[in-house]
Amino acid sequence: MPRPDPAEVFELTEAGQVTSPTQQTHFASRYVDGSTIDWLREEAAERERTHVQRSQYGVRGLLLPWFDAVQMWLVVILTGVGIGLTGGWLDVLVKWLGDLREGRCSYGFFYNQVACCSGVTPGEACLEWRTWSEFLGVRVILAQSLLHSFVYVSLAVAFAGSAAVLVKSYAPYAFHTGIPEIKAILGGYVLTSFLTPWTLLIKALGLALAVASGLSLGKEGPLVHVSCCMAYLLSRFFKQFRNSEAQQRKLLAAAAAAGVSVAFGSPLGGVLFGLEELDTFANESEVMWRGFVASAVAAVSLQWVNPFGTSKLVLFQVTNGSDTWRAFELIPWVGLGVFGGVLGSLLIKLNVEAALYRRNNALHEWPVLEVVGASAITAAISYLIVFSRVQASELVANLFQECDPTKIDYHGLCNPSAMWENVFLLILTAALKVLLTAWTFGMMVPAGIFLPTIAIGACLGRAVGLLTQGLQRAYPSAWIFLSCPPDPSVRCVSPGFYAVIGASAMLGGVTRMTISLVIILFELTGALSHVLPIMISVMISKWVGDAIGKDGGIYAVWIAMRGYPWLPPVDFHDKGETGAQLMRPVERLVVIEDDRETVADLAGMLNDHDFHGFPVVHRHEFLGFITRDKLRLAITPLLAEDATSGRPRRCVFSQRSPCNPEEAVDLTGLLEEAVLHLRQEVPKELVVSMFQKLNLRQIIFTSGGKLRGMVTKTDVVALLTCNFPHTGALPSGPRRAWE
Amino acid sequence: MPRPDPAEVFELTEAGQVTSPTQQTHFASRYVDGSTIDWLREEAAERERTHVQRSQYGVRGLLLPWFDAVQMWLVVILTGVGIGLTGGWLDVLVKWLGDLREGRCSYGFFYNQVACCSGVTPGEACLEWRTWSEFLGVRVILAQSLLHSFVYVSLAVAFAGSAAVLVKSYAPYAFHTGIPEIKAILGGYVLTSFLTPWTLLIKALGLALAVASGLSLGKEGPLVHVSCCMAYLLSRFFKQFRNSEAQQRKLLAAAAAAGVSVAFGSPLGGVLFGLEELDTFANESEVMWRGFVASAVAAVSLQWVNPFGTSKLVLFQVTNGSDTWRAFELIPWVGLGVFGGVLGSLLIKLNVEAALYRRNNALHEWPVLEVVGASAITAAISYLIVFSRVQASELVANLFQECDPTKIDYHGLCNPSAMWENVFLLILTAALKVLLTAWTFGMMVPAGIFLPTIAIGACLGRAVGLLTQGLQRAYPSAWIFLSCPPDPSVRCVSPGFYAVIGASAMLGGVTRMTISLVIILFELTGALSHVLPIMISVMISKWVGDAIGKDGGIYAVWIAMRGYPWLPPVDFHDKGETGAQLMRPVERLVVIEDDRETVADLAGMLNDHDFHGFPVVHRHEFLGFITRDKLRLAITPLLAEDATSGRPRRCVFSQRSPCNPEEAVDLTGLLEEAVLHLRQEVPKELVVSMFQKLNLRQIIFTSGGKLRGMVTKTDVVALLTCNFPHTGALPSGPRRAWE
Q1: Does the interface ipTM go beyond 0.85?
Q2: Which residues of A516-553 are buried (b: 16+ CB within 10 A; e: fewer)?
């Protein structure tokens, strides 16, 4: 059986370009939202396209592939530049909105506090920046205090409320973090409405408002989503991406890496995130390469905007990073690792409970009201507790800082006599943030979970650091502290670094990432000399987290709750079952019989069933697999011919049936080229691992040439997520969540 | 057809334990050196083993899997500790041997210079360390000079010669870097003699001697080899690893990561190296996890030994790492990237030519003499050129250093008036090192290529940095330098950092690694703020290198020259061919016919052909695949029975043939469970990518149930390496290279 002529298949995949309205419809609806793409088929189409290009004669044959490459790199680089600039300007916007909650610049409304005071020499008081009470001329202390808290809370509510209104009215997919959806999309899920220009705009704007409102959320995940929207938007200008879902996904993977790169100022972290979290990367070095470039470009662009005025990428610079550490410190650090694993699992559990409660409650009909209420409560609590009044990123930066007598002490954190107060306040802040974050992550605003997690971990870590330091100062001669320098004025324990360890442990517990996390933390803090303790704490917290809840981290939990067809990269172990137990046996399959069914029969079959393809057999013998779309495209004209001629023709799929053109149509060329068969005795776990590694949509089981059954991706996803009790609890995307 | 009883298969794989001598032979020779393991089969055996364990009743069923895990982690951790300590002590040994070439400690022969002078307060002259002329009381300048050069060269020759003698006499596999072999082994190649305890000992000892001799080689690759030998040695104590080549390879991957971690003091780099260079990692998070732990443990152990007395892991600390960089500097850096790509390809080419010349020449009969000659020449040249007289690592450390008026100037490198002399010397050093390295890498001593490459790149980078600095100082007001601080006393261009960039570019060109390289350089230098320029230079040099020579880096070239069955992770693109063009058609296959061949026929078949397995058909219809070893194991007793009874029996492989025990034996249970079939119309590139992703040994092509052909890993390797002209030029391991 010859391979179909490449030009023919090319026609087919390019059919979207043909102006015939029926064909247009066919191809526009090639994948509807909620379906899964067929990687093998997509790649075959892409292969045919490049073959056609290369087989062109003369200059055209040379230039066409080159144009393709140029277009691809153009999209990658523009996405990098775009997300770098967007990220930078969002930071500026958030800073301005955040500062607006405390006061305004006397000579211009649109200056933030830093810009407003940039003319003042360091050390002098900045008179140009006025708090609201100064600006409005309120002099009574009580009135000042009331005014401040009123403005603080009401602006928070206004920001959060408008973010929620924007999201609800214009782009419902712009809520939440977006990373679960991106993981699902990169795995082959189709969700076009998640990547529209509107979503891009609303998510970016809503994100700035939500972060500025002081809700317990971060900008990291949403920035990845924004980056993917950009890449999608740019890719729509080029035919090669419009026509190939696979090519598009490779771009999206690079865009996601660029998003992480900007979110954390961590270009390497972006690439590693792509490698570890987005499986698309691991398979092709070419894709990793694009991610590398996109990350680097994005970081350069971000550095060019220079939102923090430090001309550095390192966000939370750890001072005295060159300090060495002592062996006894491993004890509190291991403790923090264990604690991070436990608390991380608890946070995931609370978050799931909150999501389920919201869903099963009247609340889900009033998402904006919920956001307003939550932001009011958050603002009120934050205003009362001194550490959480500032932006979470500022809090983290201060917690990571070592005490330095030459610098201003942050709310008395370095006062050795106030140790117990500080520890109490830090633990209180962490506990409140756990509750607030568990509720906030899932509300109708763009929200990332990274920054709150870092903040919680940093509070706890700093508390442990303060306790260790106190212990060491109280008993400097205990044998465990003998490795400390004898001079009491030299610092032995660095509580700031304990905050970094706490943050890594907490992140490990919540996201269950490993290497990319270490790299991100590393680039975030510049604490190169402390890479080992960071690695150890991440390792331990992941171990503990995985031991407590076999959920695979917060993103895997949300993917499962949404019911996306995403294969978790777990090592599945069967108990001796074979593929035969997993497959849908042939009796329960809808099968096309060679040389038996008429064109009209097949049309009826297409109407009756919405499977994405059908196995073709000849008296139980497996001939091949045909996809729904190819079949529909092929029989639509034949159906019309049969209707006019009045003679129904049989459909023939193999050379062995004689094919008289009067009585039969030859559809042999429609069979998929790449179909995997296995024997049904194959172990179940091998079937699962093939789906994981090859991104398959189905595997056919044959035995001695006879069709025995079939397994689809959906079956495997169901198998892998059956342990999680709330699988599919928030079905069919966010829209249903409040409609 | 029921799946065979797990216990039965377990019996089979455990047969190596049975004391029967014939069975023992079978299993000892299950894989001979030079063959390839079958991953699917290995994993199936492992699966059966764990099933048997878990299905045990009572405490045994609980404890056995737990013991397995404990054993595994024990090996991982012990390997980490072992390689960390070994690496640390090797450094100490090398330092002592290297210092011995210049003098000795007056109060103890076994102290190196640093240890000898440790009692002296900084700033004072160290009188305890005596050069040879001081020690021997030579006072005439000329005689001193002659004595020094004589000792320098003759000790170099002695060290290198004894390394070569050790390697040649005791462990021929201990020569070269070892990374190509490890990549091949991790891909499934069997080369047990590469991992023996003798190889471990000789490689470690020889490495110290070779490095101390001042030959142009590094310790990085060989340390990875040593680490793998350790893991192999430790794993032999546990049955689960002895019986499973796949499990062993997973351990080796972790060990390799630990080796890199120790070689560069770069625990994250080790994990990343595993991820990027050793494909085994990408497939299983569990394996990556082990690499993570092994790397961390190894780094902690190394830090505990503290060979450099700095109690830091960062080997070549870049001072003033917090300096920002200016946009115009991208021009020289991009230039360095391009240059690194070109020079890297050139170095690979020269190295290949040198290897071929050695092979086709009388030289290969006198490997020790060659090493002696090369070390004499290297030592003589190095002694004359001031920059290369010290160990390469010391040179690199000095080149990476910024000029600091408070520190001692390294050979006038910071003297602004001697710019041209310095540039000339640096370029000369680099050029000589290229030639020496191209020759040395492949001689009969343990030799890594990382450090020489870094040294070459650092020389060139520093030269470019000096030129740029000179240009900026000469024309400080040119528009391109306007971003520099106006005060001429403030440094604008940091030549030390140019050396780092040069090193990364050169490494990118030679190894074609990307992310792991950036991370390693990063941990090596601590230059966190300069991650972007490093990324960019690595990117560009890889692009340029790949454009010039499609060889995939030095390791891939050596694998191809050796002819190891390793699948390069390239993106293969066909020109429209299908699997039919790649497969060996059924007419040229050796096939077992169901119910036709007698036991004796099969035994004869096993003797006549050395294929690792045979397809089984029933009148052209494909039934399954049977491996050579299973078949041999099964028919050996049957053959004896038939010989005694005198009645030859037929072999039956499917239920459809009636199986009368008098006339036939049922071998149905021997068919492999996991066999992949595809249609022969499947595109060639999909077949290749399946081999790459699933680590297959063969794929069967069927059509309508009939066997059409088969593709094996060897065919795919031949396809992928056909572009490289010297494939298999140094066949069958190192032994043949000189015998």
Answers
A1: no
A2: bbbbbbbbbbbbbbbbbbbbbbbbbbbbbbbebbebbb
